[in-house]
Amino acid sequence: MRYALALVALLALTACGRDPGTRALTGGAIGAGAGAVVGSVTGIGPVGGAVVGGVGGAVVGAATTPRG
After folding, report:
1. In whole angstroms, what is the distance from residue 45 CA to residue 38 CA?
2. Where are the beta strands (DSSP E) in 1-68?
3. pLDDT of the residue at 48
4. What is the mean pLDDT of the chain?
5. R_g of the chain computed on alpha carbons
6. Contact of 63 with 22, CB cutoff 8 Å
7. How far apart are CA 2 and CA 22, in angstroms?
8. What's the CA gap between 19 and 2, in Å, rounded?
9. Is 38 helix (H, G, I), strand (E, B) or coil?
10. Residues 34, 60, 40, CA angle at the centre, nearest 5°?
């Protein structure tokens, strides 16, 4: 359930920004923070979670379209 909630929040917030680069940066930052939190309560650890979340957030952020 935690992963689903984190994914929904990540997808909702990654569309912030007008260009793909900005959305990738904000998505990466949000993903890294969320991944560190999730990783700290699982066996991955906070650093591993931040890396996975940051990469995933950047990819999703760059792939989204801006909301007007």
Report:
1. 8
2. none
3. 93
4. 82
5. 11
6. no
7. 26
8. 29
9. helix
10. 20
